[in-house]
Amino acid sequence: MTETENQKRLADALEELKEHNFMKIHESSWRFLYFNLLRGLAIGLGSVIGATLLVSILLTILAQIEFIPILGNYAHQVIEIIEKLDKKG
Q: How far apart are CA 42 and CA 35, in angstroms?
């Protein structure tokens, strides 16, 4: 291939890349900030929901282990504290 053909292919590839949605988002600073704000909110919400599910599953499992005295008492105390907090508001 000649150098002009390579340059043409490179120019075509760059034009195609400009049309990509990812590049359109980064053309405007405001659009980029808005996109990253939504991304951060989604990550934060997903983290909170995931942690809530994991803690609830863990507490449910711990509540079933009452035949182990230390874990059973601790799990019972944690469940009581959560129920008290739930009733308050």
A: 11
Residue ranges per structural domain of the chain: 3-88
Which residues of the chain are modeled with pLDDT < 50? Answer: none
pLDDT tens figures, 19-31: 776 666 677 788 8
- Side chain identity at residue 18, one-letter code: K
Instruction: Give the Cα separation of 89 and 83 in Å (integer).
Output: 10
Number of Cβ within a 10 Å radius of residue 75: 20
Decide: 78 and 59 in contact? Cβ < 8 Å: yes
Q: What is the pTM of this model?
A: 0.47
